[in-house]
Amino acid sequence: MTRRTSRRNSGPEHVSPNLTPLLDIVLQLITFFMMLVHFGTKVEDSALLVKLPVAPAALPGDDPGMDRLMVTLDTTGRLVSGKEEVPLTEQPAWWSKQASLRREGAELLALSTESLPTRVFVRGDRRLAYSRLRESLAQGQQAGFQRFSLIVKRTEEPGP
Question: What is the pTM of this model?
């Protein structure tokens, strides 16, 4: 009796790709980007010279979500967001404008517009009076923002 050999298992037709070079390149790329990117040290608006307060008991925040707004308050109380600088007198209008823009975006995505899901990250200079910081947060709350995170340093870094 002769056995038939199936075509599937015989000869060079059965080819399995060697994934080792591909995985090696992917690992090298991941290592390369991890060496270049400084996670957590580059925050939006960090070009502005703001000395953050030190709070050793500070804990990392929960998931920031997709919708976030970065706000910096300098020593004079001027609000900076992105490249936009807002003087004290125009801040209530700025908060209202930001809230209305986010509500319009929520309507386009068919989300509830009753409460804004935006997380506002506030970087306040340590020399800024607390009353000025609280006043700015109150303006944001009146506009409809409900979730605020204050950015602080856990330890004092030695400086020049």
Answer: 0.60
Radius of gyration of the chain (CA): 26
Which residues form the domain of 57? Answer: 41-160
Coil, strand or helix at 12: helix
Q: Going residue by residue through the chain, which has 160 residues, state the pLDDT in tens, using 9 for 90 and above.
A: 555 555 555 556 777 888 899 999 999 999 888 877 755 544 444 445 666 677 666 666 666 566 788 888 888 888 888 888 888 889 999 999 988 888 887 777 766 656 777 888 888 888 888 888 889 989 998 988 888 888 877 777 665 5
Residue 18 forms part of a structural domain: no
Domain assignment of residue 31, yes or no: no
Residue 70 lies in a domain: yes
Instruction: Count the domains in the chain.
Output: 1
Beta strands in the chain (DSSP E): 68-73, 79-81, 84-86, 119-124, 147-150
